[in-house]
Specification:
By secondary structure, the chain is an alpha/beta fold. Helices cover 34% and strands 17% of the residues. The chain has 15 helices and 19 strands. The strands form 5 sheets. The protein has a 7-stranded mixed beta sheet. A 5-stranded parallel beta sheet has the order 9-2-1-13-19, covered by helices on one side. A 3-stranded antiparallel beta sheet has the order 10-11-12, with helices on one face. β1 (23-26), α1 (30-41) and β2 (46-49) form a beta-alpha-beta unit. The two termini are 15 Å apart. Bound molecules: flavin-adenine dinucleotide. The site of flavin-adenine dinucleotide has 35 residues, from α1, β14 and α15.
Length: 515
């Protein structure tokens, strides 16, 4: 049995909230939900708190004019990580949800009018590559082999293992050197692929987790193999439906969910976390606190001054953040039947544009876009005869000096014109019910530091032991299960983060029982 102490009531606060719980999870993004479920399955009392009106974190759902939009993640890879959450309680995800395999996984559109379909069948993918450069067929096969080797270490040995101990990192150094992890994703891809457009297509993966392919450690090339191994899926009804069913599961198993509650401070006494206090004055007491919120925000805003010491090997002032995101949501009075579910619309510039976004932090005139068209797979996202979209445009985070009140509407117009002139004819007249999010919304809604889309960037000096640890080095009962902590962003990343936290707590309990 797990070691559980009795409920405590904090009488010292003006307003108090009696919490019948041992574990308080702050933030109900996927990392928070998964940690809550995993620890509930272990027998703990768990309370999950979020400042928003619905769980899901970045996976909120917006509705306007009869159009439904998933606000964030849509592309499901490593689906077993979601299956596991239901299996913890003897249930099956298939009884509630349908993960539909996609084909193509995604389509690239280039400014010369070329299209490249990245497909689940390797033979079909080879055919697509051959249309660009026959030599690159072998190059891609070799890239996949390299990706598999990285996956064997980077995913199987590192992703769901605690990295709190420097010696764990040291033990992996020979493997990391052998796999040339000091190289960037772009360097690795370019060593196998010759065609300039295919080089772009096969190196964009770090952008899915907030990194510049020319700066991100090649460990993230494991995503190639991860996609091949398990496929790419869409959850029918959208990611919002997935969140809804996780909410139902959490309620069925007795997790207490408290929404619209912004935690102002994690309370510390004698070096241990004792709970948290909300902006409203509510006080939560707990034996352990798990943060799903952004670690840089926690350390700079949610801990008392005495505890804001540096928590990573490198000082927080040296943090490098992922890019910001501008997300344009809209419906169309027309069905764009030829549009794939996922399209990556590449702009004229690649490396230089990424440098504008990540290094110079300026909003360039040109852009590259990711376009989500859920109606390609699930017509319930739009009224009859209409289509539903979101367009994601990587932009500088708030460390850039961009006036989003002015630039937001301008960027909207530029994107609509560019799409009208290329793959979405007449969009300028068919578009309706549009609205957008800027990095300022990511900061105000999710309390994401500098409005970054994916917390700190996935560079080598911010990975594994160098990333925010899953347990604070100084406060032994404060944990992190979120994109900013090991192993990193993306749904598979944060679901693994929850596994690491579960393993850490389990280990502590074993030690406690043995003593
Ligand atoms: C537009 C977009 C598209 C994406 N597409 C994909 C995709 O297709 N596939 C994929 O795998 N990944 C994708 N990602 C990445 C993925 O969504 C994220 O990395 C992941 O969902 C982050 O989860 P998280 O657990 O870190 O929590 P988050 O989603 O960041 O949620 C954290 C929660 O904590 C809450 N919170 C913060 N501070 C407090 C506080 N003080 N008190 C109370 N609550 C607080 C916030 O309100 C929020 O709900 C996408 C991300 C975005 C933004």
């Amino acid at each position: 049995m797990c070691n559980r102490s009795s409920t405590r009531i904090d009488n010292s606060e003006t307003s108090q909230f009696h919490l019948n719980s041992n574990i308080l999870v702050i933030g109900a993004g996927f990392g928070g939900i998964a940690a809550a479920l995993r620890l509930k399955a272990k027998g703990y009392s768990v309370t999950l708190v979020d400042r928003l009106h619905a769980i899901g974190g970045r996976a909120q759902v917006f509705e306007k004019g009869g159009f439904r939009h998933d606000a964030g993640p849509t592309l499901i890879t490593a689906p077993f990580l979601f299956y596991e959450l239901f299996e913890l309680f003897g249930e099956s995800l298939d009884d509630y949800l349908e993960f539909k395999p996609l084909d193509p996984w995604y389509r690239f559109y280039f400014q010369g009018g070329e299209e490249f379909n990245y497909r689940p069948s390797i033979e079909h993918t080879y055919e697509e590559i051959r249309r660009f450069c026959s030599e690159d067929v072998e190059g891609y096969a070799n890239l996949l082999q390299a990706s598999k080797a990285i996956f064997k270490i980077g995913y199987e040995k590192l992703a769901d293992k605690p990295f709190n101990n420097f010696w764990t990192m040291i033990a992996q150094v020979p493997s990391l050197m052998r796999l040339r992890s000091y190289k960037t994703v772009a360097q690795l891809v370019n060593s196998y692929i010759k065609h300039p457009l295919l080089r772009q297509a096969f190196s964009i993966h770090p952008l899915l987790v907030g990194g510049n392919p020319f700066k991100t450690t090649s460990i993230y090339s494991l995503i190639h193999y991860l996609e091949r191994r398990w496929g790419v899926f869409f959850c029918m009804g959208g990611t919002g439906k997935l969140v809804e069913e996780l909410h139902n599961l959490a309620e069925r198993v007795g997790i207490q969910i408290i929404l619209d509650t912004d935690i102002e401070e994690i309370t510390i006494n004698s070096g241990k976390a004792t709970g948290a206090r909300a902006v409203s004055g509510q006080v939560f007491t707990a034996d352990r606190v798990i943060c799903n919120c952004d670690p840089p925000t926690v350390y700079s805003q949610m801990l008392g001054l005495g505890h804001r010491r540096r928590k990573r090997a490198l000082p927080e002032s040296s943090n490098q953040y992922s890019m910001g995101l501008y997300v344009l949501f809209f419906g169309a009075n027309k069905i764009y039947i030829d549009m794939a579910h996922h399209t990556i619309w590449m702009g004229m510039r690649y490396k230089e544009l990424l440098s504008d976004i990540f290094d110079k932090k300026i909003l360039a005139e040109d852009f590259s876009l990711y376009i989500h068209r859920p109606t390609a797979t699930d017509s319930s996202f739009a009224p009859t005869g209409c289509d539903s979209f979101y367009v994601l445009c990587p932009v500088p985070n708030l460390l850039g000096n961009i006036n989003w009140k002015e630039e937001g509407p301008r960027l909207r117009d530029r994107i609509v014109t560019a799409l009208s002139n290329t793959i979405m004819p007449e969009l300028e007249t068919t578009i309706r019910d549009d609205f957008w999010m800027t990095p300022e919304d990511f900061k105000s809604d999710y309390r994401s530091m500098h409005g970054a889309g994916f917390s700190i960037a996935p560079i080598f000096s911010q990975s594994a032991w160098f990333r925010y640890h899953n347990r604070d080095p100084h406060i032994p009962n404060l944990y992190f299960s979120s994109a900013g902590a090991h192993p990193g962003a993306g749904m598979p990343g944060v679901l693994c983060s929850a596994k690491v936290v579960e393993a850490l707590i389990e280990k502590e309990e074993q030690v406690h029982r043995a003593s």
